[in-house]
């Protein structure tokens, strides 16, 4: 173990390693597996309790989750039988799971900079392997992977994180954890580690315990933790893996067009982006898009604001549009997070307009027009 008392320039205990959660932090597992339990219960003539499922089982180990479901729905199955029946369905869906925005970027950056980092998940080891095997390069990048079946207790016990630090050869107090759930944040704090939380709306309460809270991995700044900073910004724009949306544009606002009325975007897509919009008349526009949440009492709904920066907004009103977002400008400030709409500034428009003239982004324009 690295036992010396490393201290950063700001007097804080220095971060020497990073430990990453998997589901909801790096992978958009929820979007790909949404509806599996509903379909499963329908075979037994049981309706899923959507309100209960929306908040109850995030971060649970597989065994705890299975026992809870069997009990809640009075299934005539043992937890093990339930697992054996439902897990093959999950295995098929995991093949469709994509990385959350910023996940590939962070993993590649830590690996290339030689920062020790590990993967620590409440999933079983074999399920972790199944999920990351379809993500190019991930398995090779992680030198340490710890599942809940490799320790005495899963999260919120600190065992997983303590074991990950041990295998990295770094004292727990020198580790930074990036998590999305309350059980994960509790586990990391119990292990005496620093925690950055990037929660979904369902897990917003974990922000009360975390050392730092972000809305997206794209907002993560390693240099704030004395880690090597990213060097992939082009002026004031960050190239991202494309985000695709089918939308209806009306009165400067965007309404998603999805089959089941649920947002196609992961919760952690937040901030001001830019890209291309292809209208139903096959016109292509440069756009700036602000994405956040409208918080009302106990509910949260998507707020999506759009500004067409090289065309007539009135001409484009009430049009179905296919958006291809290719760059990130900034996260939302505290006022924008709580306001009804996301403010798109003149500076945002200037950054987007200049960036979209660069060859790397013009290529995406050509691709978008063929969609």
TrEMBL record:
Gene Ontology biological-process entries: FMN biosynthetic process; glycerol biosynthetic process; riboflavin biosynthetic process
InterPro entries assigned to the protein according to its UniProt record, in alphabetical order: HAD-like_sf (IPR036412), HAD-SF_hydro_IA (IPR006439), HAD_2 (IPR041492), HAD_sf (IPR023214), PGP-like_dom2 (IPR023198), Riboflavin_kinase_dom_sf (IPR023465)
Record's keyword annotation contains Cell membrane: no
SUPFAM superfamilies: HAD-like (SSF56784), Riboflavin kinase-like (SSF82114)
One Pfam family this sequence matches: HAD_2
Tagged with keyword NADP: no
Gene Ontology molecular function: nucleotide binding; riboflavin kinase activity; sn-glycerol 3-phosphatase activity
Keywords for the protein's UniProt record, in alphabetical order: Flavoprotein, FMN, Nucleotide-binding, Transferase
Superkingdom: Eukaryota
Protein name (Swiss-Prot/TrEMBL): Riboflavin kinase
Gene source species: Tripterygium wilfordii
Taxonomic lineage from the root: Eukaryota, Viridiplantae, Streptophyta, Embryophyta, Tracheophyta
